[in-house]
Amino acid sequence: MGLIKEAMDLGADVVGGIPWIEYTEADERTHVDEMMKIAVEHDADISMLVDDAGDAGLRTLEMLAVRRSRPAAPAARSPTTARAMALYPEPYFRKVAALLKKAGWASSATRTPAHCTPASRRLLANGNLVCLGQDDVCDAYYPFGQNSMLEVAFLNVHLLWMTTFPEMETIYDMVTVDAARCINLKDFGLEVGAPAHMVVLDAKSVYEALWYTSRRSTW
Questions:
Q1: pTM here?
Q2: Between 20 and 30 A from 172 (CA), which of 33, 104, 180, 213?
Q3: What is the pLDDT of residues 89-130, one digit of tens each?
Q4: What does the DSSP assignment read for the chain?
């Protein structure tokens, strides 16, 4: 905990956490509570790696959502890489999805099939905010990747089997406007006064942008 506090004092603006690796349920709850306290003390967002294993018995996502619903909770960002969600029984999945909505949390999924395919579609159908991202690029965990959200979108069109034009629009939102909402990004969008950070695509539609994923320029 001391290193996290030191990092925040040095200027970090998001508090992390990985409670599911703790040995006991009590330790998991303490992990979540302590990270939340640090986030509140520094008026910072929080983003935790939760339930990142193929184990339907993991419960730290629920712990995080419940804690976020209580008074004196930090601003929302997102729980990430909750692989266990894909294995949750339907009644428990609905409970956690409802808790996430109540807490104002989004769910961020990576592009790995086990992470996103069943859970992301179910969350979308439930009306939850979901975004897509990439947590590793050409490293020990994942040997590919171009640090391109367009590539992530293209792959998830197939992984999630969202191949109709309206579904492609949803996927595109999941790497743009919904992703901005997931990370609590301020002043986002094509508006006067917003930062002029953009990716210009040589495409007439979202469909063409996903089809020709290499045609892009960053500004």
A1: 0.85
A2: 104
A3: 999 999 999 988 887 777 766 545 445 566 888 889 888 888
A4: -HHHHHHHHTT--EE---GGGSSSHHHHHHHHHHHHHHHHHTT-EE--B---SS-TT--HHHHHHHHHTSSS-PPP---B--GGGGGS-HHHHHHHHHHHHHHT--EEE-S-HHHHHHHHHHHHHTT--EEE--S-SSSSS-S---S-HHHHHHHHHHHTT--SHHHHHHHHHHTTHHHHHHTT-SS-SSSTTS----EEES-SSHHHHHHSTT-EEE-
